[in-house]
Amino acid sequence: MPVVMDAERISRALTRIAHEILEHNRGLSNLALVGVRSRGVPIAHRLAHDILQITKEEVVVGALDITLYRDDLMGASVGLAPLVRKTEIPFSIDGRTIVLVDDVLYTGRTTRAALDALTDFGRPKSIQLVVLVDRGHRELPIKADYVGKNVPTSRQESVQVHLRELDGVDEVLLQGKQ
Amino acid sequence: MKRLLKGGRVVDPVNGRDGIFDVLIDGDRISAVGTNLTADGAEVINIPAGLVVVPGLIDMHVHLREPGQEHKETVATGVASAVAGGFTAVACMPNTKPVNDNAGVTKLILQKAAEANLARVYPIGAVSRGQKGEELADIAELKEAGCVAVTDDGLPVATAILARRALEYTSMFNMPVIEHCEDQTLKGDGVAHEGPVAASLGLRGIPGVAEAITAGRDILLAEMTGGHIHIAHMSAWTTIEAVRQGKSRGVKVTCEVCPHHFTLTDDLLAAPVAYDTNTKMNPPLREARDRDAMIAGIVDGTVDVISTDHAPHHYDEKNVEFDRAPFGIVGLETAVPITLDKLVHTGLITLSRMVELMSVNPAKILNVPGGSLSPGAPADITILALELLVTVDKAKLVSKSKNTPFHGWSFKGGVAATIVGGRTVYSNPAAGMQ
Amino acid sequence: MLTTLRHKHLLGIADLSPDEIVLVLDTAEAMKEVGQRTIKKVPTLRGRTVINLFFEPSTRTRTSFEIAEKRLSADTLNVAIASSSVVKGETLVDTAMNLEAMAPSMIVLRHASSGACHLLSRICKASIVNAGDGMHEHPTQALLDAFTIRERKGRLGGLKVAIVGDLLHSRVLRSNVLLLTKLGADVWVCAPATLIPPGLKQMGVTVTTRVDEAVAGADVIMMLRIQLERMQGAFFPSQREYFSTFGMTEARVARAKPDVIIMHPGPINRGVEIASEVADGPHSVILDQVANGVAVRMAVLYLLAGEPQNNAAAD
User: Are the Cβ atoms of C126 and A76 closer than 8 angstroms?
Assistant: First the structure.
């Protein structure tokens, strides 16, 4: 299975994105990182850490579970509903710049759900999007502001992001056709 | 018209027979039983191996529902079900609408039975007028019209004093009082056997003792009065214990058990189909201890009769919440397969004992013809198919109602043919009868 | 890790495995967070119809279900039918088949007959959620009780739970006994001998008629309502005598652990099964139970709501 990114490349990509966020927003005033569960959350924490290294300033981090906003809970057969976890945003998002963080951008539906979920928490000044991998095949008009790596894929392939915090290893894999 | 049943196994305990014999029927009577019988001009019916010729089976506890509840069953559909189940005669309970507490209702039932002309029907009259438990019904008139016993079945005889009077009064006519044993205050609004299953299903319980208390009362009263008490559809181990003690003291007490009570337990209320209203009957399915006591009583001779308590109810009446459903299941067409499979093939009882339980003793208790193949007796004959595999399909029941808990069950043993008054009223092609 | 229920219906705790119960409780934690937001609504069940079919009067349970449904954006419909009118008219089966023709996703049923939910589950395509059937089960009550205990105590296993009150007629008791024993709690049940159903011991609990013994060292005291309307059958001589022998007073609570919690499914009969000082006292979590009921019911509705058609959103 081809390794698209290893630990070193992931680390470098995130450090670059941290710099881009700071440049783009001219500083940290009123900025918050919100990771989309599950793997967006550790990525958001790593970005916060990188930002702390660069600026010596703390940036708040939240966790967003978008399960309840998914658009694919249909049918009435025996439940295969995805596991719902807690959303933890211990700060007001009103008037803030929210940087939404996810691992993979694909159809755009997760991001759409995340945007819906976020707006239920308040009215941010703006929302920006970080993804570690953009694999294409968008089904909605959604575009990432910061991308770790663009990975051309076919729809039959799957992209798997493994992170130290959840999986014990940092790597991005491209799984071939089955 | 003569008919010769040739070369079959004949089981006739009254005449001490169990072997290969020919049975000669002349008109509506048994003419002779012996070996190598011949008769000029007789229709010869060869009995294949595996079939057994026995005296016609008598079910002394059925509900034919007519008059008044013809949507459940009629006399005609009931006797059709009876002969399909191997019964040549049935005794029907008086809890019709109106109650069979007068000669008019008795005669109506007998007239319907004559029109149907299948199984014999012996009406049972009410103990009390309107089964209200207040005053005795006109029992002499009922006897005269054709009733063979009295009961308030569906309910117990309401009070000890009324039970005493009934036992005293019926002793003049040599009729038994058949008792539906159930202390009404202990039963309350119970719908299932009181025990762990009812507790876990949240169903109000009927303790076994509710049955035994009334049985005990009636056995003591029978002892005191010299009357004949017959304990219907026993379900609790304590009841059979009371009967056993009464019999040991010489009390005129007889008793019956239904196939569901020696086969099933209340576990069936919980699984495979929880709250299946076809597992709701009165008395209720009880625990293994009770079921095993019924089998023990059948084996040791305490139990006199296997009856069905055939209680047809319409589909709509059963397709409701468990506690709203009426009590009762149909039983005429499943009794023989269950008894052969669970009692005879298992070696618990002999065929001869089965004939005593289902033919000899009911005839004796009700003082009606039948129970033997003696020359001169009515030619009421059941032919059993010992090895026939019977799978119960409620849709194929002859009874108007289909409320059986045995749907889909398979049993070894069935009915090949039923002969009433020398006439074949039912024959089962699957059992090799023409 | 279990992520879904193995059942289409919630008929009772009896059908649930321990990991399914934990899944409901975990999911309820996420649902509780939704209830703490300014906008207490998520679009999860948009376009689904849920019918609350109540054959018994109920304010607490029905409103709790209704709020749960609304917070999940389901379309809700309340059908309340007095049991007396059913006797005269339509059967439960006919009522259900008529409602079924309107294609609801779920029917939440409260009914006076034990097993009514089982009956509907055999004839309806909709998922049936038991909101209390006769004396049988009240599974969402037991789940919200367990949620409340876990929230306070961090666990259920090993806790001593004393359940005191009308054990004979209580569906809350049955569901709670099933749930608590499945998750390893040490369950004691206590009532006058006339209100103890035979067969209760077989459910894996300690049965006693001595309330002091039941509450001694208890982590949780759960009171059951004495249904005064049912007590005509002389199960005990008087309310006064019941309170003096079984009522939960401060003196009795003092025999339990210092951090004991007092629970009651409501509605409370003050001065019959519980003293006001206890119901309103520092150990009482009775109002937490009510609040948690919404989260637990949201979790149940969500978990029964069905499978994703594809995994398009899992990018």
Answer: yes
Taking a C-beta distance cutoff of 8 angstroms, is the pair C295, C31 a contact?
yes
- The DSSP line for C50-108 is EEEEESS--SHHHHHHHHHHHHTT-EEEEEE--HHHHHHS--HHHHHHHHHTT--SEEE
- Tell me how far apart the alpha carbons of residues A129 and A44 are, in angstroms, rounded to a whole number: 11
ipTM for the complex shown: 0.91
pLDDT tens sequence across B16-62? 999 999 999 999 999 999 999 988 889 999 999 999 999 999 999 99
Separation CA B265–CA B268 (nearest Å): 6
- Å between C45 CA and nearest CA of chain A: 8
Interface of chain B toward chain C, CB-CB under 8 angstroms:
194-205, 207, 273-275, 316, 319-324
Alpha-carbon torsion A168, A169, A171, A176, what sign?
negative
Q: Which residues of chain C neighbour B195 with C-beta distances below 8 Å?
A: 198-199
For an interface test with B, which of C84, C111, C114 has the most B Cβ atoms less than 10 Å from its Cβ? C114
- Read off the pTM: 0.91
CA–CA gap between residue B108 and residue C215 (Å, rounded): 66
**Is C307 within 8 Å of A86 when comparing Cβ atoms?**
no
Taking the mean position of all CA atoms in its chain, how far away is CA B297? 16
Beta bridge mates, A104? A133
Distance, CA of A29 to CA of B95 (rounded, Å)? 89
C6 chain-A contacts, CB cut-off 8 A:
78
CA distance C227 to B144: 54
All structural domains of chain A with their residue ranges: 7-68+86-155
> Which helix (DSSP H) or strand (DSSP E) does residue B211 occupy?
helix B209-225
Q: Which of 3.40.50.1100, 3.40.50.1370, 3.30.1490.100, 1.25.40.10 is the CATH number of C13-137+292-304? A: 3.40.50.1370
* For residue B151, pLDDT beyond 90: yes
